[in-house]
Amino acid sequence: MDDMSQLPDQPGDRRAEVRFIVLAAAAGILTGTAGSFFHMIIDRLLTWPAVLSRHLDGAPLVGVAALITMCLTVASVYIVRRYAPEAGGSGVQEIEGAMSNLRTVHWRKVLPVKYLTGIAALSSGLVLGREGPTIHIGASISAAITSFFKVSDVERRGLLGAGAAAGLACAFNAPLAAVLFIIEETHSQFPYTFRTYMGVIAAAFFATVMTEMIGGTAPDFSMSVPTPELALLPAFVILGCVLGAVGVSLNAAIMGVSNFVMAMHKRVPYLMPALIGLAVGALFILFPRAVTGGENVIVMMARDNMALSALLGLAVLRYVSMVASYSAGTPGGIFAPMLALAICIGLAFGTALSGLLPAGAAVPLAFGIAAMGGLFSASVRAPIVGVALTLELTGAYTMTLPLIATCLTANLVAQWIGGHPIYEQLLDRTLAQAGVHPERMPKKRSGAGIA
């Protein structure tokens, strides 16, 4: 991390500090408003399979749904590739590159493309999260602000981080996790000063205020579990070991399959996005829990008591559909799909364990909640964010100790078996494709997210 002696700005220009905080707050307000309507539109459009089922059934219903998702997927990929290639995927790596002065945020192109194709891709049923687009949208709004107001390079980079934090806060109604995400995930790129740090907090705060004003105040995945017994902490450590391996595998699959899809695009353009769209569209009718970002799936999984075999089957399906959907090249994040995959794994682990212990000794949902933070930590390699995000999302503060145990273990295991943070890998690939010389690339991070 940068020397924390940089945190206090030189005394003197209080007006400049106030000006910067106001700009960051403006970015938060605009991002919270735009992101909230982004989510509301997607929620409304995701009902199209139910509308379609009123007019069709059986094989015609599956076929038409597959064609709809295919068309939306191919159209989104075409628009992204044609007008704003950096709008594909989550965009987090683009913001990290821009904060390192290795990438440029072309906000005039990114904002409309990310917003419109993000709505199309996410409402089609692809297994993608809303947080990636809103993070990129928030940073693009900040970039727009810096183009209208004269700021220093440090302030520009700081506002990019503030906009990204606002986007994450809006996506999950989780301001604390959003601030910690900038501190832990972008520590190598974010310029730490008192001014920029306060700007991130202000942006996340105002984005959350706007989100709650427009969409409500409850945690996205409100859950309640009794405090697990201390004797169960070793079980959460074992779960963390499992998730560490799964996280490394998931990162490798995302990178490998997306590289394959890009190579195939050079031979047969848009073939893979079309096939992915067909498969996801069919699953949207046949097995809806296997697709979409997973917000509703998480709630249903927490409520229902599924058999162990069903949980394992759903975990495999969501693993495959998540990797395929992200590899298609449309806008979309990985946080929400990762959380949905994790709760499947955690519930399966808890269900298996409950069969070995006395009745009531283990609550499967407790392991499902812990797994959400653990898989995030193993993949993104930001364990503090994993703990905070899970607690803010679920409101299950009785899970604090088990979450820390799971996230700590998952992060350590992922590091020890040779995994690398997913956004580090995505940024390295982006810079390599752009022809950035290796010595200009950011320094590699250690597994804990701290250099």
Automatic annotation (TrEMBL):
Subcellular location: Membrane
GO cellular component: plasma membrane
Main location as per UniProt: membrane
Residues passing through the membrane, by range: 20-41, 61-80, 159-183, 195-218, 230-250, 270-287, 308-328, 334-353, 365-389, 395-414
Molecular function terms from GO: voltage-gated chloride channel activity
Top-rank taxon: Bacteria
Keywords, in A-Z order: Chloride, Ion transport, Membrane, Transmembrane, Transmembrane helix, Transport
Membrane topology of this protein: Multi-pass membrane protein
Alphabetical list of InterPro entries matching this protein: Cl-channel_core (IPR014743), ClC (IPR001807)
NCBIfam families: PRK05277.1
Name this polypeptide is given: H(+)/Cl(-) exchange transporter ClcA
Organism: Martelella lutilitoris
Organism lineage: Bacteria, Pseudomonadati, Pseudomonadota, Alphaproteobacteria, Hyphomicrobiales
Gene that specifies this protein: clcA
